[in-house]
Structures are given as structure tokens and as C-alpha cells.
Design goal:
The protein has 581 residues and is of the alpha/beta class. It is built from 21 helices and 22 strands.
């Protein structure tokens, strides 16, 4: 029923208008002045208002102003019926927002015509308004369930879809696979090429995954550089592995963005319903755990979830808890692996390597506890302990008259953040231990350098000015750019052991090693080959012009006392203790 409010101070005229409207089937309300009319409008929200202008207390103009200021009454059609016939009055009425203006006397037909016209227009406006509300609602619904950048489903929609997919699989007794994908070293791209290109790369990755995904399946962006895929109705684990390898290959193809050819790899964790878990939350945990395992064990690979990973996860938590206590109990030991000059055959220095002397598990190697220290934030404290211990040992050797050359200490990427106090810390340690800066070398990997290249260059320049040597460890396995390399104030490149292992049998490894040596020498840098285990490897590296080697061929990492004995004995490559080259 359409409600019309009549605001008129002349009772007889108000009753006449109301009677006419009642006869036409309207639901009619009456008000004797503007004050009452405003209150009734707010209470009943009529569909249309008919109002006189000349009224006591609050006239028609004041009534219209009051109603147009209230959001819930501002759009109600408003018709003036008045004896005021001056054009100025009509103009003022329209300026204040009146929808029509009838002068007394008027016929019933004129009044009903004006009402019909205004109600029709009002319905049209309301319909348009509601359409806009619906459009905004749909847009909000979409944006709340989709990633703004890639337009893929977001975490919220992914969870809903996975729950539905699991329910559907249960009802139909089918299997499904859940994949979690993490882009490897994506922060390197953002730091070197900028966030704009990083965003474009995200879009390109999303588009590849979207096109690859079957219509009945889903790909979603979970957060940051993590994506998830739901693959329905899988036949067996073999087919899932084949599909996952295709995805790895798909993502590793080059991306051409703004003149840059970009390569990216991914680590993928896989879990299967119902074999691994029968609920969505459990599947998510399994897929994440498998993904992190793949990431920690080589990257650009996939890992299928198994219950063994939960055991490993429990072991991880146990080691993480023990690591805190180990710092307080001084359970860490420093081992020294000699660096040997290939021309003289003599020891010229050593790399300091941490070992954890666990009271129950014995010696724990760095590959087990360093990643935990990185993830728990204990790596900074561990590095400080290592650096103090090394510098104190160097002072003891110096005071004993033992020539040890220099000692290299590895640092974490966390030391090369803008909020780090690395320079102050190194200066403090050197001062407190009385160690000469040229006896200390700092080793860091390519990936550390490229995380924040400009800032790292500043830090390395300060280290060089201080007299501390700098080496790039594991060279050839990271993402460094040659255009950046020439600006890095470093002293040494270390060839990663993966190239040295098969250098005598694999021409590709031999070619890469030779190229690194030539590159380093062209930049006036020294070269150290890691992981040298045979005389043949040492001979070939010497032939290629490599400066120094380290590895089990000469010596494994040793406790300080054993390395000290080696220094005192003057062990070298060409004596009776070592194979001659």
C-alpha cells in the first residue's frame, strides 16, 4: 500500500485532500503543521508528501529543508500545494528540492496526475538505487573472495572450496589432491628488479596456473608467493606426481617482462584425500608441511606427504627447544677446515664451522641445526658466539707465535638487514679480543647479497675499509648478476662443491668451474674451490689456475687443538702426509 502524508494547516482542505486520496486507494496520513509533519515522516516514512507552504511554527520551506537533510527521508517525493503563485516562490521551492508545485485552487485530476508522475519517477529512482546497491554488493562479494592482484580465489574462497571438494569426494568415494606451491627466492626478484615487475610476475604465474587448471579444479593465491591447487578425481599418486612435475616445468619457463627475461622455480607439497587425511584442515597442514620439506631440500622440486614428515617435524621442534638451552650451556664448538694455496701447498687460512655438542645426541652437524637457528631467530646469537670464539682463538694462536693466516666466518642473511648492527658488533669483537681485522674474513652466499644488493654493497664497503676480507660462498648456485658483481667489494669467490664433485668427469662442471676462475681473475679476485676430495680434482683445479682449495682431500674440519697441531707441524700438499700434486 502506498502511503501519502498530507501536511496542511487548514483542516477542511486537509480533510478534502485526504478523502480524495483515500477514494483512490492510497493509505493517507495527515499533519496540521510542519513540525508534526517532519516527525510523522521520520516515523512512518511515507512514499510521497503533499505540503502547504504558509503554515504556523514551521512553514513548507522549512519542512522540506529538514526532510532533505535526513538521509532516510531525503529522497521522498515532495509536492507543494499552495496559494503562493509568485515565480520567486516556485523557484525557491525547486531549489530546495521540491519535486512539483501546484497552486490553489487545483482539481483532483491535477493532484492525482502530479502524484502519479512523482511516484513513477520515485519507483524508477529506487529501482536504479537498488540495482547500484546490488552491483556494489556483488563487487564486494567478489573482492572479499578474490586476490586483488591476480584475481585468483583468495584464502577465504579456497577454504570454502576445499571443504566442498572434500565433501563431494566423500559422497562419491573419489580421491583428490591438494597442492601447495611456494615460489623460490621471489624476494630476490623484488629486491633486484623492483616490486612493479614482481607484481607483473605474480600475474603471469597466476595466468599460467589458471590456464593449466581444469574447469572443475581450482587454483588460489593463499598469501604472498604461495599458491594452492585442488585437483579432483585423481587416479593414483603416480598421476599426481606426473601432473606436479608438469606444473614445475610450466612455472620454470622464462617470463619476458619489460625487457627482462626472468626465471623462477617453485617448491610444491602434495597431499591426497582420503589417504593422508579426511578433513580440509588436516589436508592443508599436510600440504604445507610437504611444501616446506621440498623447499628445505633443494627447491624446484615436489614432496609427497607421508607420516614420516610429522616425525621429522616433531624432531624439528625438539631440536628447536634444545637449541635455546644449548646457547646458554655453551654446547657449540668451532671446527676449522684448512684452506690450502695450490701454488705453495701451504695452509693460508681456515674456515670456521659450527658443531653442536649435544649432551644426548652427540655431535650435530650444521645442516640440521642452522636452518632451525635461522627460522627461530637464534642465528644472530649463534653467529656472535662463533665470532667471539674464533677471534679469541686467533689471539691465543698469535700470542703462541703460530701463523694461522686468516679465519673465515659465515654470516646469516639476517646480519645484512638495514636494522642490523653488524658493523658495530664486528668492531666491538675485534677491539675486545685484540684481533687484527686483516686476519678475519666474512663469508656470505650469493642469495644473501642479492636480497638487498644496494644495502649489502654499503656494508661490504665498510668491511673492506675496516680491513676485513669478504668471500662469496657457493658461487654459481645463486642468482647474482654479473653487472652487480663488479660493484661488490669482495676479495674471494668460492666455487660450490656441486661443480667440483664431478669436475674430472663432467665437462659441464669443468667448463663452469673454469669460467668462474677466469671471471674472478678478470675482477682481480681470488678463487677457492670447496669440497675437493681427490688428487685428480686438485690437479685439474691447479691446471685451471684456481688459487686455493679446501676439502677432505687435504683435511676435514678439525677441533682447534688438532688444527693447531697441523699448523705447528707445517703440513702441506707436497709432504709425506698428503698426496703430491
Amino acid at each position: 500500500m502506498t502511503i501519502i502524508l498530507v501536511i496542511e494547516d487548514v483542516e477542511a482542505l486537509r480533510e478534502e485532500i485526504m478523502e480524495t486520496l483515500l477514494y483512490e486507494g492510497f493509505d493517507v496520513l495527515g499533519a496540521e503543521n510542519g513540525v508534526v509533519g517532519v516527525q510523522m515522516t521520520k516515523t512512518y516514512l511515507p512514499d510521497l508528501i503533499i505540503c502547504d507552504i504558509a503554515m504556523p511554527e514551521l512553514d513548507g520551506f522549512g519542512t522540506l529543508v529538514a526532510l532533505r537533510q535526513e538521509p532516510k527521508t531525503s529522497l521522498i517525493p515532495f509536492i507543494f500545494v499552495t496559494a503562493m503563485t509568485e515565480k520567486a516562490d516556485m523557484r525557491r521551492a525547486m531549489q530546495l528540492g521540491a519535486d512539483d508545485y501546484l497552486t490553489k485552487p487545483f482539481t483532483s485530476a491535477e493532484l492525482l496526475g502530479a502524484i502519479a508522475s512523482r511516484l513513477q519517477k520515485y519507483e524508477s529512482v529506487k529501482e536504479h538505487y537498488y540495482d547500484e546497491i546490488k552491483a556494489v554488493g556483488k563487487k564486494f562479494e567478489y573482492s572479499s573472495h578474490h586476490d586483488d592482484l591476480t584475481q585468483l580465489p583468495n584464502r577465504i574462497l579456497f577454504h570454502q572450496s576445499l571443504s566442498q571438494a572434500v565433501l563431494h569426494a566423500k559422497i562419491n568415494r573419489k580421491s583428490l589432491a591438494l597442492l601447495f606451491l611456494d615460489m623460490d627466492n621471489f624476494n630476490v626478484i623484488n629486491n633486484t628488479l623492483g616490486n612493479d615487475i614482481g607484481d607483473q610476475l605474480f600475474k603471469a604465474i597466476a595466468e599460467r596456473l589458471r590456464r593449466y587448471t581444469a574447469p572443475c579444479d581450482m587454483v588460489a593465491r593463499i598469501q604472498g608467493d604461495e599458491f594452492a591447487m585442488i585437483i579432483s578425481d585423481v587416479a593414483d599418486t603416480v598421476s599426481v606426481k606426473l601432473e606436479t612435475q608438469k606444473i614445475l616445468d610450466l612455472l620454470s619457463r622464462p617470463y619476458n617482462l619489460y625487457g627482462h627475461e626472468i626465471f623462477i622455480t617453485s617448491s610444491i607439497g602434495i597431499t591426497i584425500f582420503p589417504d593422508d587425511h579426511q578433513e580440509a584442515e588436516g589436508l592443508i597442514k599436510n600440504a604445507e608441511l610437504a611444501m616446506y620439506y621440498a623447499k628445505d631440500h633443494g627447491r624446484n622440486s615436489y614432496k609427497l606427504y607421508s607420516s614420516d614428515l610429522n616425525v621429522q617435524s616433531s624432531e624439528y621442534m625438539a631440536l628447536a627447544n634444545s637449541l635455546h638451552r644449548a646457547m646458554d650451556r655453551n654446547e657449540f664448538r668451532v671446527f676449522y677446515q684448512p684452506l690450502v694455496d695450490l701454488k705453495s701447498g701451504k695452509i693460508v687460512g681456515a674456515e670456521a664451522l659450527a658443531r653442536w655438542q649435544h649432551p644426548d645426541l652427540g655431535i650435530i652437524m650444521p645442516c640440521r641445526f642452522i636452518p632451525i637457528a635461522e627460522q627461530t631467530g637464534l642465528i644472530l646469537r649463534l653467529s656472535e658466539v662463533m665470532l667471539y670464539s674464533v677471534c679469541q682463538q686467533m689471539r691465543a694462536w698469535r700470542e703462541a707465535g703460530i701463523n694461522y693466516g686468516f679465519v673465515a666466518v659465515n654470516l646469516s642473511s639476517q646480519h645484512f638487514r638495514p636494522d642490523s648492527n653488524l658493523m658495530e658488533f664486528i668492531s666491538k669483537v675485534l677491539l675486545e679480543t685484540g684481533t687484527d681485522s686483516d686476519n678475519l674474513a666474512i663469508e656470505l652466499t650469493e642469495s644473501i647479497i642479492m636480497k638487498n644488493a644496494e644495502f649489502t654493497i654499503q656494508v661490504l664497503s665498510q668491511l673492506k675499509a675496516m680491513g676485513v676480507k669478504v668471500a662469496i660462498d657457493d658461487f654459481g648456485t645463486g642468482y647474482s648478476s654479473l653487472s652487480y658483481l663488479k660493484h661488490f667489494p669482495v676479495n674471494t669467490l668460492k666455487i660450490d662443491r656441486c661443480f667440483v664433485e664431478d669436475i674430472t668427469t663432467d665437462r659441464h662442471d669443468a667448463t663452469i668451474s673454469l669460467a668462474i676462475i677466469d671471471l674472478a681473475h678478470s675482477l682481480s679476485l681470488q678463487v677457492v674451490a670447496e669440497g675437493v676430495e681427490t688428487a685428480e680434482q686438485a690437479e685439474l683445479l691447479k691446471e685451471y689456475g684456481c688459487d686455493r682449495i679446501q676439502g677432505y682431500f687435504f683435511s676435514p674440519p678439525l677441533p682447534a687443538t688438532e688444527f693447531e697441531k697441523m699448523l705447528i707441524d707445517g703440513k702441506c700438499l707436497d709432504d709425506q702426509h698428503c698426496v703430491s700434486i
